[in-house]
Amino acid sequence: MSIGDSTTKDSKDEGDDDTSIITFSSILSKKDDEKEQEIESEIEQEETVLIILNYPIPELSPIFHHIWESSTIRIAADGGANRLYDYSKSMSKSKLGRSSKKEENEKEEEDLYIPNRIRGDLDSLKPNVRSYYENHPTHNVIIEKDACQDTNDLDKALQVVCCSDDDDLTTTDDDGGHSRHRLVDSYSRRVIIYGAFGGRFDQEMASFAALYKWSSKFNYQLYLYSDETCAFLIPANIHCHIRLPYHENNNNNLEEENMFGEGPTCGLIPLGCRCESIITTGLKWDLDGSMPLEFGGLVSSSNHIMEPIVKIFASHPIIFTAEICTKK
Ligand SMILES: Nc1ncnc2c1ncn2[C@@H]1O[C@H](COP(=O)(O)OP(=O)(O)OP(=O)(O)O)[C@@H](O)[C@H]1O
Ligand SMILES: Cc1ncc(C[n+]2csc(CCO)c2C)c(N)n1
């Protein structure tokens, strides 16, 4: 089996289909790049859903702001709404010193970060945060309780992204000046889960478990993010292409101010099971299919992205993770 000689792009078929390719692209790359735009249209992701978990959002996070701006639907998983509320407040406060129109600015900043929906068992949502979103004068925030104690709040949020055809989960077309709602099937949704690393280890592992449970429903476009790292699931027996901005031949970009992006340090982590055979190209320590990856054996940590496209073909599902490089 060689790698990277397939020509057919993203296919819904799973299994041994030699000709399908799944592409994983940077969430953080700027879209004004012509090449990026081409790739975006190739992937044909109709919308991006952001799920915010209950983990602190660092003050003035350019990464969170970028992900927020790239999303069309934003869902807070229970206590994730508290974090969003705190972030909005701290953003408006940090702007206070910079403007004479203090109150006006504060209001504008707060209104920048209103979720479409808050969902979970709602045991963590603070009463003042609930009432702020519930009574918002301009935004209709859906607050939805699901009391089930066998799934966590991330699962509850993913359930609604996957299965709901509610109005706030439909996309709007501009049809010659008229807005028209259109159902989008979960297969064409890209989902970014923000706040997935750090904090409680059981919650972190549950977020990885969500990749194994839900990725196939979103054509594997399900990504875990924090300000430091990202991760997604490489499916078994499908050619995967990973395009991330920071690789060995592109580190110059980081010399500019305020740049951030995924790479170049990366890892292949056989979390769910032993990965019997894996072939990669574009990494500093490539694998040729002869070495299994497994806990207790070889785990590919501290690897490096060397090429604009990393190609992977694995016999079993495996986690790909990359650092997020920031230059302030
Ligand atoms: N300490 C944490 N570290 C990492 N992720 C977290 C942490 N707390 C919560 N999360 C994530 O945010 C989601 C919403 O958080 P919330 O505190 O509302 O949790 P929950 O699912 O009700 O869990 P629990 O009640 O057991 O804390 C969780 O489902 C989980 O994915
Ligand atoms: C085997 C098993 N382990 C733990 C829980 C508890 N649990 C899992 S998700 C969740 C919701 C948290 O908001 C809770 C309480 C369970 N039900 N079953």
From TrEMBL:
Residues 261-318 form the Thiamin pyrophosphokinase thiamin-binding domain. Belongs to the thiamine pyrophosphokinase family. GO terms for molecular function: ATP binding; kinase activity; thiamine binding; thiamine diphosphokinase activity. Pathway: Cofactor biosynthesis; thiamine diphosphate biosynthesis; thiamine diphosphate from thiamine: step 1/1. Its EC number is 2.7.6.2. This is Thiamine pyrophosphokinase. It comes from Fragilariopsis cylindrus CCMP1102. It catalyses: thiamine + ATP = thiamine diphosphate + AMP + H(+). Residues 1-41 are annotated as: Disordered. It is an enzyme of class 2 (transferase). Keywords: ATP-binding, Kinase, Nucleotide-binding, Transferase. PANTHER family: THIAMIN PYROPHOSPHOKINASE, THIAMIN PYROPHOSPHOKINASE 1. InterPro entries: Thi_PPkinase, Thiamin_pyrophosphokinase_euk, Thiamin_PyroPKinase_B1-bd, TPK_B1-bd_sf, TPK_catalytic, TPK_catalytic_sf. It holds the Pfam family TPK_B1_binding. SMART domains: TPK_B1_binding. GO terms for biological process: thiamine diphosphate biosynthetic process; thiamine metabolic process.
